Structure formats: C-alpha cells, structure tokens
Amino acid sequence: MTHPSLEVRIGSLTLRNPVLVASGIIGYGAEYERLVDLSAIGGIVTKTVTRRPRAGNPPPRVVETFLEIKAPILSTLPCAVIVSVEGEDVREFCELVEGISASGVAHAIEVNISCPNVGPHGLKYSTDAGMAREVMSAIRPLTRLPLIAKLTPNVTRIGEIAEACESCGADAVSLVNTFIGMAVDSVTGKPILGTVLGGLSGPAIKPLALAKTWEVAQAVDIPVIGMGGITHARDAVEFILVGSTAVQVGTALFANPSLPEACVNELESHLRRSELSSVADLIGALEVPPGRGVIRAGRRAS
Ligand SMILES: Cc1cc2nc3c(=O)[nH]c(=O)nc-3n(C[C@H](O)[C@H](O)[C@H](O)COP(=O)(O)O)c2cc1C
Fold first, then answer.
1. Which residues share a beta bridge with 227?
2. At residue 278, does pLDDT exceed 70?
3. What percent of the chain shows pLDDT beyond 70?
4. CA 219 / ligand 1 centre spacing (Å)
5. Looking at the DSSP assignment, which residues form a beta bridge with residue 62?
6. Which one of the listed residues 79, 115, 168, 263 is annotated catalytic?
7. What is the Cα–Cα distance from 159 to 127, expressed in whole angstroms?
8. 245 alpha carbon – ligand 1 mean position (Å)
9. Which of 126, 155, 274, 302 has most Cβ atoms within 10 angstroms of its Cβ?
C-alpha cells in the first residue's frame, strides 16, 4: 500500500497532517522549536492575542507587540500558523481580526470566544448562541482567512453554539477549551487559585471532551477540530473517529514535547493497519449501534 494521505482541509487551508499544538502551550512557536519538530506536524495555534495587556494573566499579550515582535518569527516556522485572538467586545474582535489578517502571518485565525480565565466577558460569547453569532457575523466580512471558532465546553447544548458559528460563516469550530474548575485548601479554608475558579485541562477531561466533540460533529457540516486531554498518540485517533478533522495537543505536551509527532506517526500506522488510504476515511468513522449516542440538540439529530 502507498503512503496513506494525512492531508486535511480547514476552509481554504490545507494542513499536511491533522495534528496541531493547542493555543497557550508553546507561546508563539519559536520558543519551542528545538523541542517540538514543527516540520513534522500540521501546525500550531498561538497563545491568544488580546487587544490590551491583561492584568492578572501575565505576560501581557498585546496585538501591537505581537505584530512587531512575534509576527516576523512566526512567518519563518515550517508549519501552518493559526493565530488565536480574543477581544473584550465585538469591536476589539474586529480590530484584532483586521490587524492579524493584514499582517499576512496567519494561515487561519482561531477566534477564542471561550477563555474561562478572564472574567465574565471571556465566556459570554460562547455560552450564548446569539452572542456567538454577533461576534462571528461582525468579523466574517473582515478577512478571507479561514475562521475557526473555539468553543467552551461549559454549556448544556454545545451543538447549538457550533451551529450559530457555522451559520455566520465560520470555516471550522475547535473544542474544547478548558472546563471551569476549582481547588480548595481545607487547611487554610481558602481557594487555591488566585482567580478562585480556573480552567481544567489534561487527561481528566478527555472523556468529557470526546463527548462534546462527538456532539458538535453531529450538529455541523464544517470541520471540527477536537482537543482536550490528548496524552497518548492513540487519543488523537479517538478524536478523529468521533468526527474531528484535526486535533490539537495541549497540556500533555509539557511532559512530552514529542507527543504531537507521535500522534502523526500513530495516525499513519492506524491508517495502514486499517487499510485506509486517507485520514478522511477515518473522520467520524466511529461504529455506533443504530439509534445509540444520538444527541437531540444538534440539527442532524432532529
Ligand atoms: C497553560 C495553558 C494556557 C492556555 N492558554 C490558552 C489560550 O491562550 N487560548 C486558548 O484558546 N486556549 C488556551 N488554553 C486551552 C488549551 O488550548 C486547550 O483548549 C485546553 O487546555 C484543552 O486541551 P488539553 O487538555 O490538551 O490541554 C490553555 C491551556 C493551558 C493548559
């Protein structure tokens, strides 16, 4: 059998393989170039770029700094670069999308409407379909780059939010951002996190993330980019089976920087073992008994 094809498409962007590094894990890529072989993976998603410095979540990520200092480095990386942006209101989202788009450095933009760590505005746009629509429809006309809406799992009907983004021209949705969690110190009687609530990521969330990804994949026709707790190479295959076109590796990369590459290799081996010629044959190929696992919130389930 010839080499199985690992290429996937996210809107107009072709990725050489479906494995990406998630936002917030390797900064702007260059910092980790010696640890992660970027030429072996599909691409990276940058740390979320905001309009203004953000107190309490250092270091500040400001669009001007990004464009001056980070953008020139990003354009030298040997993989696709997806720039993550987040505004405090719709106007800021628009400014960020216009700025990043004009810089010419991004192959796609991930619209982070789901950050749980930045107070009420972070989550509001992805917990309400109307507000998700407001952001996505405002930014859609401002760029020709593929737009990926990053969703929060902290909602009851995530399929509806994904559908809202799709209806406003999103080229893909990515999920999950972190689950809201908290840690308590019983000795001091105080919360352990300065922010009281924080974002839970890593292996604990994988079953939850798989379920959300499965739900969204049933609700929309655009590509779904799945993530949450990918720790072993085979986890990437699981996310593709439930309907992901591409996957993102997050927290586990801190312990194992070669994990993204291992995911690519495992994916290729899996396709060979299954005698499949393309990763496209694996997307959503989970064998579910008829009538089982259908989630009623999604359009396709109705
Ligand atoms: C240290 C850290 C920083 C993160 N920063 C961002 C960020 O800037 N923007 C974003 O959209 N997601 C951010 N995330 C969320 C991840 O991109 C990912 O959605 C989440 O951690 C789930 O994947 P994982 O379990 O593989 O880590 C961050 C996660 C971690 C652990």
1. 248
2. yes
3. 90
4. 24
5. 50
6. 115
7. 11
8. 19
9. 126
What is the pLDDT confidence band of residue 176, given thresholds at 50, 70 and 90? very high
Q: CB burial class (10 A; 0-12, 13-18, 19+) of residue 2?
A: exposed
Q: Ligand 1 in contact with 177 (CB < 6 A)?
A: yes
How confident is the model at residue 51, as a pLDDT?
A: 82
3-state secondary structure 46-100: CCCEECCCCCCCCCCCEHHHHHHHHHHHHCCCCCEEEEEEECCCHHHHHHHHHHH
Backbone angles phi, psi at 56, to 5 degrees: 90, -20
The residues near 237 (Cβ < 8 Å, ≥ 6 apart) are 266, 267, 270, 282
AA identity, residue 15: L
Torsion angles phi and psi, residue 112, rounded to 5:
-85, 95
Residue 168 appears among annotated catalytic residues: no
Q: What is the pLDDT of residues 235-246, one digit of tens each?
A: 999 999 999 999
Whether 204 shows a pLDDT value over 80: the answer reads yes
Q: Is 8 helix (H, G, I), strand (E, B) or coil?
A: strand
